[in-house]
Amino acid sequence: MRIDTPTICKSRPNPDSHFLRYALQSNSRRRLDDAARTVSPRGGSAKLSSWRFEAPPFKVAAMTDSMSPTLAGSEWTTAEISAVVSDYLAMFAKEVAGTAYNKREHNRALQAITGRSPGSIEFKHQNISAVLAELGLPWLRGYKPRSNFQDALIAEADRQIKRLDWLDEAPLPLPVLSNAERRIFVEPPTRSPALEQPALGRLVQKFDPAERDRRNRELGKAGEEFVVGVEERALLMGGRPDLMRKVRWVSRDDGDGAGFDIRSFDLETGRERLIEVKTTRGSARTPFYVTRNEETTSRELGDAWRLYRVFEFGPAPKIFTVVPPLDQQVRLTPTTWLASI
After folding, report:
1. 312 to each of 112, 219, 247, 301, how far by Cα in Å?
2. How far is CA 180 from its chain centroid?
3. Which residues contact 170 (CB under 8 A, 6 or more apart)?
4. In what order do the strands lie in the sheet containing 305-311?
5. In a 3-state reduction of DSSP, which class is residue 43?
6. Within 13 Å and on the Cβ side, how many CA atoms surround 181?
């Protein structure tokens, strides 16, 4: 993560602070195919290690009888949907690997295959982004998620989604911050109704984005370190280097079990702010797990406790905050029970 070196701090900052370490890093960004982030579970330093990421090959089917030019407004055929999903995943793999590609060229190729208009193809790409967002996955920049898609698209996504298994092995994009004002903290999303399309609900349940994020320890540690940097930066830029030096990464230094990950401070009051971090590469609506210990701790600590939901983790992550009582802001669904005799 890059943060430009601050100029307002008159006292000497803690040389071990995450903020200062980020500030002293080179301003040049490393390409994803030349570097990967690895987080030491005990050492606490984010380092770049050399690792060449090879994106898997994706091929788009050639013209077939089932993909003959069609009339505008007609339903997309199964073959056409298969072609556009494959094309999207091909661009997605290139973007993750840092390989250059041209969206217009991909669009023109699909026009030749399907006979669809450029706008129709772009809208279908946005539909695919919407499916990926529901699955808690990142999506292609420039194709903002748009719903209202066919069940056939969900079925094809289900068929091809296993081709994204390599994503968990790909290097995490590095967050980039600067002294320029950038809106990191946003309002929580409004409560959404249950998924209107049963087929999409089944796919989300099958893919289980919350469980995938929970198992991805590198993602979790990277999100926590990002929040440590955000908190230290806010305190330092707010003229409180004394509080910045007291920020602690509790889950790293003391292990899990405290019911929160980071001890920070409120800039205005100086009171402790105890932060539990939940990170996803998906959208703000991606579900996440809360443990019984975290829920109990949130009630015991009250206003001092915060949940930071870090979403769209990558070069420009965002955060929304949840405060106790949790059940007033999120739906809590029991998923497991402890059985005893």
Report:
1. 33, 11, 24, 28
2. 22
3. 32, 53, 96, 97
4. 248-249, 262-265, 272-279, 305-311, 318-322
5. coil
6. 0
Contact indicator for 127, 147 with CB cutoff of 8 Å: yes
Question: Which structure tokens are listed for 156?
Answer: 């094809």
pTM: 0.73
Q: What is the pLDDT along the chain (341 residues), one digit of tens a residue?
A: 333 323 333 334 444 455 444 333 323 233 223 322 322 333 333 332 333 334 445 455 554 545 555 555 688 999 999 999 999 999 998 888 888 999 999 999 999 999 999 999 999 999 999 999 888 888 898 999 998 888 899 999 889 987 777 777 777 777 876 644 468 999 998 866 555 678 888 888 888 888 888 888 889 999 999 999 999 999 999 999 999 999 999 999 999 899 999 999 999 999 999 999 999 988 898 999 999 999 999 999 999 999 999 999 988 899 999 999 998 888 888 887 778 88
Q: Where are the beta strands (DSSP E) in the chain?
A: 36-39, 46-49, 248-249, 262-265, 272-279, 305-311, 318-322
> ω into residue 241 within 30 of 0, thus cis?
no
Phi, psi of 311 (to 5 degrees): -130, 165
Q: Residue 205, Cβ neighbours under 10 Å: how many?
A: 10
Residues in the chain: 341
